[in-house]
Specification:
Length: 514
């Protein structure tokens, strides 16, 4: 799916109207679709006796969508009243929508604030249709008080297109925003739905079609694209009857240390689950003794450890020799940071002719001197979380989160790497192309999840996928498996190892859908 900015979306709608569609028709489909989604998502609340729904509408076309939604709900026997947040409709389409909303009671927030306040406080469900994609800046004092009233009402909230108070294109919220449980976007996602912090105000985002032909969407300029099954298929190597383990590559995983044996095990298991032929796990003897009995599939290369339980630099000749026989190198999961591991990381970056996946402590080491990346011989993919990205860019975490796309793209261009900036709606970029991942959920926010992702990406690259395709496919599979875990165990009890266990189910299900 494509993600369109405000101007791109407006241009697409104009093109659709120019091809024979009408703005009134688009509004009717959007409003009815939003109401139908509300009835589906909030079914338990809708079915309770005397459920009260209030549609809070602005004076533009977003408000028109809210008017149509109110009319649709009323026609289906659901009590819904309209509150005009900023006066009566002003656009031709929203005026027409109001004319057709026969029998729906309307109130004016500015004219009768006391009564409207009572209606909002008593509502079970609120439709937020105050501002649409054209909103920018912050809320004025009066609208801010209305938004705060909605947020404190205790009602379930559905926002139309975006939560009022969040600009469409930059993800920033200046002084307040509706806190939606569900946001219904039309035709495509917009940046507001996938950027921080606006994504948190959107709640769950659902995209509804309003009739714009797919060929027009495909020909439109776009802000970014999302990951999908096509990304996954592009990275997975077909299984032929004559295949053997050598057909699917060898991954060299240089991971683990004293106290971090689990990081190595998770990464290795994840790589195997995504189809790699062989994983050589270059680990300390202590990590080997822990992991080999519980995961015997890997080929282990026991290495000498230093006094802190990390891989000693004495092993460097062995490690560099192993680079020759692998198709990809995973470096950093649970590795630890000291002078020995620094030398190992620097040497692998400068010597490896196979693609390198840098994660965790490898990134912490690189952050001390990112220019080491300019010495690499092979493609590299980095998988930082916001804290690691902040260290790499010499910024604060807040600055990274505020400018996720810019940070990722600038770093990718400067150092010639693929950046997988983790978090909700993980970004994958090579500095030119940008993908946004839409699978995954908060249940995955726990230790070990990043090791699993790094292993998956490493396994895909070892099989022959390009680093960019592997990054896109890795986060898509990782998030999809995480969604299965959430559905099975809930958002509080899923573990990183559960994600690995769910990969076969996700791959089987996803493959059957294409």
């Amino acid at each position: 799916m494509r993600i369109l900015s405000c101007n791109q979306m407006r241009a697409l709608e104009q093109t659709a109207v120019g091809s024979g569609m009408s703005y009134c028709g688009l509004m009717e489909t959007a409003g009815q679709g939003a109401a139908a989604q509300l009835m589906k998502a909030f079914q338990n609340t809708i079915n309770k006796a005397e459920c009260r729904v209030v549609s809070v509408c602005g004076h533009g076309n977003n408000g028109g969508d809210g008017i149509v939604a109110a009319q649709y709900l009323s026609e289906h026997g659901i009590s819904c009243e309209i509150i005009f947040a900023d006066g009566l409709p002003k656009t031709a389409e929203s005026k027409k929508a109001l004319e057709q909303a026969v029998g729906v009671k309307t109130y004016d927030f500015k004219q009768d604030r006391s009564l409207c306040t009572q209606k909002i406080k008593a509502a079970d469900i609120i439709i937020d249709a105050v501002y649409g994609i054209g909103f920018h800046g912050g809320l004025n004092e009066e609208m801010l008080s209305l938004v705060e009233m909605i947020n404190s009402s205790g009602a379930r909230v559905l926002s139309v297109d975006l939560p009022s108070g969040a600009p469409c294109d930059n993800g920033q919220v200046e002084n307040g925003c509706v806190e939606a449980e569900l946001t219904v976007s039309f035709t495509t996602l917009k940046p507001v739905h996938v950027l921080f912090p606006s994504m948190d105000y959107c709640g769950k985002t659902v995209v509804l079609e309003v009739g714009i032909p797919q060929k027009l969407i495909n020909s439109s300029p776009f802000w970014a694209e999302t990951t999908d099954g096509g990304c996954m298929r592009a990275a997975l190597t077909p299984r032929r009857p004559s295949s053997n383990k050598g057909s699917f590559g060898t991954l060299l995983a240089i991971c683990g240390s004293y106290g971090m044996a689990g990081a190595a095990q998770l990464a290795v298991r994840a790589a195997y689950t995504c189809g790699v032929g062989l994983v050589k796990a270059a680990v300390t003897s202590a990590v080997y003794e822990i992991n080999s009995p519980v995961f015997p599939e890997a080929v282990y290369l026991p290495l000498k450890e230093n006094e802190d339980g990390r891989i000693s630099r004495e092993n460097l000749p062995t490690v560099l020799n192993q680079l020759c026989g692998c198709k990809a190198v995973l470096l950093g999961c649970g590795l630890g940071v000291d002078d020995d591991t620094r030398e190992i990381v620097h040497s692998v970056i400068t010597h490896s002719e196979a693609p390198i996946i840098l994660d965790a402590d490898a990134l912490n080491i690189v952050s001390e001197n990112p220019d080491i990346l300019l010495t690499k011989k092979a493609p590299a993919i980095i998988t930082p979380h916001p804290g690691e990205m902040a260290r790499l860019c010499k910024l604060s975490v807040a600055e990274v989160q505020k400018n996720r796309r810019i940070c990722a793209e600038d770093f990718a261009r400067k150092y010639g790497v693929i950046v997988v900036l983790k978090g909700a709606y993980t970004l994958i970029t090579d500095g030119k192309d940008l993908r946004v991942n839409t699978t995954g959920n908060p249940a995955m926010a726990r230790g070990g999840s990043g090791d699993v992702l790094a292993g998956m990406i490493g396994g895909l690259i070892a099989q022959g996928a390009t680093p960019f395709n592997a990054g896109c496919a890795g986060v898509y599979i990782h998030g999809g498996a995480g969604d299965i875990c959430r559905d099975k165990f809930g958002e509080y009890s899923s573990l990183a190892s559960d994600i690995i266990e769910a990969v076969p189910e996700f791959l089987k299900s996803a493959s059957s859908n294409y």
